[in-house]
Amino acid sequence: MPHDHDLHTERLRLRAVGTADRDELRRHWSEPDVCRFLFDGVPPTARETDVLIEDSARDFAAAGAGLWIARTTDGGPLIGTAGLRPLDDLGLEVYYSVAPEAWGKGYATEAAGAVVGHALGPLGLPFVLAEVDEANTASAAIVTRLGLVPYETVPGLLGPMTRYRRDAAPVTRTA
């Protein structure tokens, strides 16, 4: 049964995370290669995972976006997550994670692209942001493929972080 906030791509189905996803998310986010940049190397605790799920549910109810869990369209195992969250007071940033066994298949670009498209399309956001650790060259390549351009470097826990931005396409009106 489809959910109100599902997103679909050619190969993926993204569904809003819920409490039933807690254990699977904890396992995924506890993978050292997954939490390295997403959580600065420290996996979220059970309580922190619950808060992330609760915050996502609140954000979906209030604004139509939060955190999605991604699987292949055939309902296979967890591919990863993608979502929108506040970046300081600047706006919403796209963020994502991919299971190591799914790396190199374009899933991160596909899932994050669906979220960026949702943000700049149906949600009507004027822009979307991303913040990427300088050492995370794979993620920098992904956001660049999605049309985000770097605009500043800021300090981060693991070293410098580059902030990216993509503006919504201007609306042209005809007379």
TrEMBL record:
Which InterPro entries would you find in this protein's record? Acyl_CoA_acyltransferase, GNAT_dom, N-acetyltransferase
- Annotated membrane-spanning segments are none
Source domain of life is Bacteria
User: Which Pfam family name is an example for this entry?
Assistant: Acetyltransf_3
The record's SUPFAM superfamilies line, in alphabetical order, gives:
Acyl-CoA N-acyltransferases (Nat)
Positions of the N-acetyltransferase domain: 12-169
Which PROSITE patterns does its entry note? GNAT (PS51186)
- Name under which the protein is recorded: GNAT family N-acetyltransferase
Q: Which organism is it from?
A: Streptodolium elevatio
Q: What is the lineage of its organism?
A: Bacteria, Bacillati, Actinomycetota, Actinomycetes, Kitasatosporales
